[in-house]
Amino acid sequence: MKNLLVTGGAGFIGSNFVKMMLKKHPDYKIINVDVLTYAGNICNLREVEGAHNYKFIKADIRDREAIDKVFKGNDITDVVNFAAESHVDRSIVEPEIFLTTNIMGTQVLLEAAKNYWKINPGDKYCKKYKSGVKFLQVSTDEVYGALGRSGKFVETMPLQPNSPYSASKASADLMVRAYHETFALPINITRCSNNYGPNQFPEKLIPLMINNCINDKELPVYGDGMQIRDWLHVFDHCSAIDTVVHKGINGEIYNIGGNNERPNIEIVKLILKSLNKPEKLIKYVQDRPGHDRRYAIDNSKITTQLGWCPEYSFEVGIIDTIQWYLKNHDWVKNILNGEYLNYYSQMYTNILK
User: Fold this and answer.
1) Could you confirm whether 292 is annotated as catalytic?
2) According to a count of CB atoms within 10 Å of the terminal CB, is the N or C end of the chain lower?
3) Which Gene3D superfamilies does the UniProt entry name for this protein (predicted)?
């Protein structure tokens, strides 16, 4: 049995991962730690609130005392660290929060894991790790920088981040690697391509365009819209992380991609077409600073070594995603009017009654 600590489990990817793991591994206990910033939406987890093997703790990963208490009070056996500031535009305006959360927060988690698991650096050479423990850092393909017209990101490429966000994630990755090399902490790092799917915060490209399209608002497109990304359905990403938790070779990095390269403008036009809206809603705006032109993931390592493969084609996944947002308009409305921020306090009040 695992007592799995999921940090940032109220966010887009984290909440989908928590729900999947509770369903797939009913004998595991999931401890979800989230500080509930603007991007943390505890409403995403309403359906599992009463589960006997699920526990939510409101805490900041930068708080050493709180994180130590989480480890000791829940006998944590594994960590999956989703917790991060992740929006590139926000990192350009306010980079400091990205450094403190993404780098220092990760170091706090690493130190807590090292101390609680009582890892002996000498074990590095004889491979005698405590059974079952693992620290999995969820990272991004943006740490590699930008690609030209050809080629794909592979795990051995040097890190060349181009935004404060990606620089903070690259720094966190290096800290995770350092704890493995210096202290023999059992780790894996996963680097994913752009995610999409249910419960994604509407500041990101696909939900923003869907919501604006539904409401006949302008669809802002950076530059010429020809920035290319490899799109990965969130359900595929979650299944890949589950695979790495159970099968990942200690110390290894795994790229997770969906094999779905698309220019941003193509996605915007596909959403318009699917919702029967005119292309005149598109508004080209000034490109953001340091905007990488192309990302593409080579996922052959995880597919050949661990046997994982993405199941969603983009054609199916994007239609499912559009339908989800159409059916869950109240969820989007609660995000936009800020109501979701009150749900945790209301939930806590009801518990006390």
Assistant:
1) no
2) C
3) NAD(P)-binding Rossmann-like Domain, UDP-galactose 4-epimerase, domain 1
